[in-house]
Structures are given as structure tokens and as C-alpha cells.
Specification:
This protein is α/β, with parallel strands linked by helices and 264 residues long. It has helices at 5-31, 63-66, 114-119, 127-137, 159-163, 178-188, 203-206, 212-219; strands at residues 33-37, 56-61, 70-74, 82-84, 105-112, 145-149, 192-195, 223-226, 239-244, 254-255, 257-263. The protein is built from 8 helices and 11 strands. A 9-stranded mixed sheet has the order 1-11-9-5-6-7-8-4-10, covered by helices on one side. A two-stranded antiparallel sheet has the order 2-3.
């Protein structure tokens, strides 16, 4: 079979150069950018949804005795900084192993409501709040990961401080609401949301045994990350989030590792 060697050489060179462009990009990301870890280290006794059991960790092999160390971990999927796929609330919806790796690096939008939360721990952002953010920073990009910054992560790892119960035992912490999340999905086409608290909805709503915003989000085939950390170190606009997690077959949730990438 006759082959145009000149054309083949040109194609090989193009592939070669494209590969090196990716390597150059990786070098640029490593040397010209800052990385912010958005993940809490999980452990027994940490803050968590009250209906969930605590973590157990047993060291079953040690270097001294066996030449290597292995721990046996026992914890629920929704543990620490974790990802909730749609199946978490919706039967036969997408599971963890069905979330594509293309969703694991996204534009990161940080909605800073720390002042509002300081005045009102039950604070929940409105659509007007989001459009005010856009007036300062520009339109939220399609496919973005939208994070609710409340600085609630600073209460970690104190379970009582994170729950923030009042005199009547009602949890008081900030959260999302259905109209705002609906607007983000329908008007801006976001991929996922995240927050620093143990629940999507405000504590006063979660205390009633209802999680309408989380249910709505997952019903729309979106996903989220809960108990994010260090959003105070990330600008409102201009960063990327890289979020990954293990791939359990038909997984309903798992601890995640998330970090932000931003220009120096």
C-alpha cells in the first residue's frame, strides 16, 4: 500500500508537538499557579450528619511486626469532605462510577457570603445575591462548580461548633435554597455546587427532617461536594477546582479530594 511519507511525517510532527504542548501546560500549572487544598482530613469523632455512625480505623498490619502497615477503615460514604452523586437521593440515577472524569476539573465560582452569615447563621443566598456577584465579576460560566463560602470550615473539627445548636437543640447554619439552585441550573447551566456545612439546606430546614434543596439538585442529575475547606483562600473568580474520588461500582457517595488552582 502506497503511503505519502511527507504527509505522514507532518502528521507525526503535529502529534508530537501537541503532546509537548500538554507537557508545557502542566509545567506552567505547576510553576505559575497556586494550589489550595479544599479538603478536610477525615477522622473518627469529626463533624458529620447526626444519623451516621462514627468512623472506625484499626491498624491490622504494622512495619514492626509485618514489614508494612495497613489500616482497616470503616466509614459511611458521606464522610468528611465528600461527593454526593444523584443516586444519593434518587433511585436509578447516576452513581459515582458514572460521573465522568471531564466533570473533575471545572471553573470555580466562589460566592462569598461571610458577612451575611456572620450576621445571620441561617443565611441562604438569593438570586439577587448571585446577580450582584455577576455585576462585580461577570457572568457565571456554563459548566461551573459554584461554591458557597461561609467560613463555616473554620469551626472544624468541633462537632458542636459545626452543628451550632440553639437553646432548643435546633441546628443553625447557612445553606442553599431551591429557587437559587434552580436558577443556577436553568439560567447558568452549572455542573455542581459545594458548601462548607454538613448539609445542603440551612440547619433550621435540615432540623425538620427535610432536605428539599439537596433533593432538587440531585433530581436534576447534578452532584455536590459537602464540607469544603479553605474557600477563604480562593478568589471569587478566576480559579479552577479539581475534584476527584474513588470509583466504587454503583457508589452512592465517598470522601473526595478537592483543590483549587489559581494564578500566582
Amino acid at each position: 500500500m502506497w503511503v505519502n511519507l511527507a504527509l505522514k511525517t507532518q502528521l507525526d510532527k503535529a502529534v508530537y508537538m501537541a503532546a509537548y504542548e500538554l507537557w508545557d501546560l502542566a509545567q506552567t500549572l505547576r510553576t505559575n499557579h497556586t494550589y489550595i487544598d479544599l479538603t478536610h482530613a477525615f477522622h473518627a469523632g469529626q463533624p458529620h450528619f447526626p444519623a451516621l455512625p462514627d468512623e472506625k480505623c484499626d491498624r491490622i498490619f504494622t512495619v514492626a511486626e509485618h514489614g508494612f502497615e495497613i489500616d482497616n477503615y470503616q466509614f459511611v460514604g458521606q464522610w468528611g469532605t465528600h461527593v454526593d452523586p444523584p443516586v444519593h437521593f434518587v433511585e436509578r440515577a447516576r452513581t459515582l462510577d458514572e460521573l465522568p472524569v471531564t466533570d473533575m476539573i471545572l471553573p470555580l465560582v466562589v460566592l462569598n457570603f461571610t458577612a451575611e452569615v456572620a450576621d445571620n447563621p441561617d443565611y441562604s443566598p438569593t438570586v439577587a445575591d448571585i446577580t450582584a456577584w455577576e455585576a462585580r465579576n461577570g457572568r457565571i460560566p456554563e459548566g461551573a462548580f459554584v461554591a458557597f463560602r461561609s467560613d463555616w470550615h473554620k469551626r472544624w473539627p468541633d462537632p458542636a461548633a459545626v452543628a451550632n445548636k440553639d437553646a432548643n437543640g435546633i441546628t443553625r447554619f447557612p445553606g442553599w435554597n431551591v429557587p437559587t439552585v434552580q436558577w443556577l441550573i436553568e439560567e447558568r447551566g452549572i455542573t455542581a455546587i459545594g458548601h462548607e456545612t454538613t448539609d445542603t439546606d440551612p440547619g433550621v430546614v435540615a432540623a425538620q427532617g427535610q432536605l428539599p434543596t439537596e433533593l432538587y439538585l440531585l433530581q436534576q442529575d447534578k452532584w455536590q461536594i459537602e464540607l469544603l475547606a479553605n474557600l477563604d483562600q480562593v478568589p471569587e473568580v478566576g480559579a479552577l477546582i479539581v475534584a476527584s474520588w474513588p470509583k466504587p461500582q454503583a457508589g452512592t457517595g465517598f470522601p473526595a479530594r478537592a483543590f483549587a488552582v489559581l494564578p500566582n
